[in-house]
Amino acid sequence: MDIMLFHSVYGLRPAVHAAADRLRAAGHDVRVPDLFEGQTADTVEAGMELKDKIGKDELLRRAVLAAAPYSERGLVYAGFSLGGSIAQNLALGDAKARGLLLLHGTSDIAEDASVDELPVQLHVADPDPFEPHDWLTAWYLRMRRAGADVEVYRYPGAGHLYTDPELPDYDETSAEETWRTALAFIDTL
């Protein structure tokens, strides 16, 4: 499976490469574009500043340029937090998308969004300050209305980026469960 994996506001750090290696070890072809062009952040606040400095439109432009050479193959779009929101935007706009794997993040959905039973899997902390329950309920309903086949997995007590072993949010048990479930999901696509 061809997978386009987008990083969080921390930038393209070792944890993203490790995740890509995990997917590669399962037999997938994975690309990890650097939307921050070499810049990384040590804190969420610094990452948000970096994201805002680059701008949402530029980040999406960079993501589209990274995915375009491979989209004819039918990509699985995936991402961590901010990268999940970017992956979601690309998957909803790509008629050939094979699936969408969201780790820790979602995005707004255009009212006219429409997909043909796009398989979507979301893994999120419970509670998550960036993905509150009310938001996730509304997001789920909008994704279903758009035609996506959505599965949501919540991990009680985990921090926002609980799959990243370099961050205080890391929760090994939840991270391993997430990866087992996500790899099984990708194998069905």
Span between N and C termini?
8 Å
Number of domains: 1
Mean pLDDT: 96
| Percent range of helical residues | 40-55%
C-alpha-based Rg, rounded: 15 Å
**What percentage of amino acids are in beta strands?**
15-25%
Description:
By secondary structure, the protein is an alpha/beta fold. It has one domain: Rossmann fold. Helices cover 41% and strands 18% of the residues. The chain contains 6 helices and 6 strands; from the N terminus they run βαβααβαββαβα. It has helices at residues 14-25, 44-54, 56-67, 82-93, 133-146, 172-187, and strands at 2-6, 29-31, 76-80, 99-103, 119-126, 149-156. The chain has a 6-stranded parallel β-sheet, with helices on both faces. Strand 5, helix 5 and strand 6 (149-156) form a beta-alpha-beta unit. Helix 3 packs across helix 4.
Summarize the entry for a quick read.
A 6-stranded parallel β-sheet has the order 2-1-3-4-5-6, with helices on both faces.
What topology does this entry show?
Elements: E1 2-6, H1 14-25, E2 29-31, H2 44-54, H3 56-67, E3 76-80, H4 82-93, E4 99-103, E5 119-126, H5 133-146, E6 149-156, H6 172-187
Helix pairs in contact: 3-4
